[in-house]
């Protein structure tokens, strides 16, 4: 029986996606409540959006599916 492993790159990207999405939801809720975003929040929302865009480009072009992975897959416990 094979030992289950996980690609740590994908785990890291998934966790970052979750955090970015939560931040964007928070900013959207704030604007819907009629509050203005601060300059820092606007900049962070742009950074979050850029991350999500680039992640989609990576997925579309299957860049993580290449064999060149410098990270060793971790064993699931």
Summarize the structure.
This protein has 77 residues and is mainly alpha-helical. Helices cover 61% and strands 5% of the residues.
Characteristic key phrases:
single chain; 77 residues; mainly alpha; 2 strands; 61% helix; 5% strand
Characterize the quaternary organization of these chains.
single chain
Order of helices and strands: EHHE
Task: Give the biggest beta sheet.
Answer: 2 strands, antiparallel
Query: How many E-type strands?
Result: 2
Number of domains: 1
Question: Order of strands side by side in the largest beta sheet?
Answer: 1-2
Share of helical residues: 55-70%
Amount of beta strand: 5-15%
Count up the helices.
2
User: Structural class of the helix and strand makeup?
Assistant: mainly alpha
Shape: elongated
The CA-CA distance between the termini, in Å, is 15 Å
Rounded average pLDDT: 91
Task: Report the uncertain regions.
Answer: none
Rg, Å, rounded:
17 Å
Describe it for me?
By secondary structure, this protein is mainly alpha-helical. It has one domain. The chain contains 2 helices and 2 strands, in the order βααβ. It has helices at 8-32, 39-60; strands at 5-6, 74-75. It has a two-stranded antiparallel ribbon with strand order 1-2. Helix 1 (8-32) packs across helix 2 (39-60). The longest helix has 25 residues, at 8-32. It is elongated. The mean pLDDT is 91.
